[in-house]
Amino acid sequence: MTDTSSFTDYYVVKYIIAGCACIGKTSLAECYADGKLAYGEHSPTIGVEFFPTRKVIDDKNLKIQIWDTAGQEKFATVVRSYYRMPHGAFICFSLNKLHSFRKVENIIQDIKEYNSTRRVDIILVGTFLDTPAIRVINREDAQQLADDYNILYMEVSSRTGQNVKTCFDIMNKIMCERIDNNDDAIKYINITNPNDDGSSGIISNISQRARGCCRSS
Ligand SMILES: Nc1nc2c(ncn2[C@@H]2O[C@H](COP(=O)(O)OP(=O)(O)OP(=O)(O)O)[C@@H](O)[C@H]2O)c(=O)[nH]1
Ligand SMILES: [Mg+2]
């Protein structure tokens, strides 16, 4: 396994997880970032919670910031204030809850509208794949909705972990393609002093065009 604790240069990618309340958004973030399976009680997210993680994908160091949003309506204003910053969005619904599926279209539209001049890659995510007996949304309907908006569709379980890594890996690969295509929205950080964690200010935020020379030095 690659040691990611000593990153001295990396790309910062920002993801948001959005959807209705109690459909497994926090569990999805925890499953991917912390390797924790969803066996706990529902503990509603207050506002927005942050899950950082690091991965090496296609020889690129990624510092991944996952912003997990509250599904409860009373937090809608604060949640929407985070719609403007992500490079990638996981828009979730529970395969067992029709109302959560009906809501995703609004969220997709909101995220597209808030980012009309920026690129946001969206994956529609059906959660609770491990409970087929109480499933109410079939794959074809969800895939059709995803096709209508030209976005990807995945089904996952944070209880068993099924497809969770794959789902994030697909997004991570998209980010790597964007980096390869010189997408300036994805910041490259080079910590010139390897003992510096980046908090003391000895970091250089290098534009995409300067990356080649930086890497070879
Ligand atoms: N069986 C099963 N349970 C899950 C899955 N994902 C989450 N859960 C459970 O569902 C409940 C709600 O999960 P959360 O991740 O807290 O839901 P949330 O969408 O973050 O909820 P809010 O923060 O209120 O918006 C918890 O009891 C989880 O353990 C899943 O894929 N399968
Ligand atoms: Mg939550």
Description:
With 217 residues, this protein is an alpha/beta fold. The protein has a single domain (4-208), classed as P-loop containing nucleotide triphosphate hydrolases (Rossmann fold). 30% of the residues lie in helices and 27% in strands. It has helices at residues 25-34, 76-80, 98-114, 139-148, 164-180, 211-216; strands at residues 9-19, 48-57, 60-69, 88-94, 121-127, 152-155, 187-191, 203-206. Strands 1, 2, 3, 4, 5, 6, 7 and 8 form an 8-stranded mixed sheet that branches. The radius of gyration is 18 Å and the shape is globular. The chain starts with 8 loop residues before the first strand and ends with a helix. Magnesium ion binds at residues 25-26, 45, 68.
In terms of DSSP E residues, the strand content is 25-35%
CATH topology label: Rossmann fold
- Compute the number of helices: 6
Shape field: globular
User: Topology as H/E string?
Assistant: EHEEHEHEHEHEEH
By CATH reckoning, the class would read: Alpha Beta
Q: What composes the largest sheet?
A: 8 strands, mixed
| Weakly predicted, low-confidence segments | 196-217
**Name given to the CATH architecture:** 3-Layer(aba) Sandwich
- Which distinct ligands sit in these coordinates? guanosine-5'-triphosphate, magnesium ion
Rounded mean pLDDT is 89
The number of distinct β-strands equals 8
- Global Rg: 18 Å
Number of domains: 1
What distance separates the N and C termini? 26 Å
